[in-house]
Amino acid sequence: DLREGKRTLLVALANAAADPAQRAALEAGIGDQDLDAEGVRVLRGILTATGAREAVEHRISAGVERAERALQSAPIRSDALTALLELAHAAAHRSF
To answer: Terminus of the chain with fewer CB atoms < 10 Å: N or C?
Structure first.
């Protein structure tokens, strides 16, 4: 996503919270097809340091909690409920 220049929520939150040096590094690195491992490490550090990563994770957790509450009262079979809950957790807690 970093090399492709995707303007995700994570990037938007980091940009909003970044200091001028961090913002400049984000602007220079996001979308750089030749971004090397060190550049990725620097950008990931900014995403963490600005609190953007934690904020996105919080939003994901809150969304999963809302989905769980909604599903618990949904008029669906228990096997469907189980499958949907597993899907929600798999989508929310995937790793790369």
So the answer is: C
Rounded distance between C-alpha atoms, residue 59 and residue 89, angstroms: 14
CA–CA separation, 55 and 36 (whole Å) = 26
Three state DSSP letters for 44-58? HHHHHHCCHHHHHHH
Task: At 76, list the tokens.
Answer: 């669906």
3-state secondary structure of 93: coil
48 contacts 18 by C-beta, under 8 angstroms: no
pTM for the full predicted model: 0.78
* Residue located via tokens 């790369």: 96
Quick: pLDDT tens for 18-61.
999 999 999 999 999 999 999 999 999 999 999 999 999 999 99
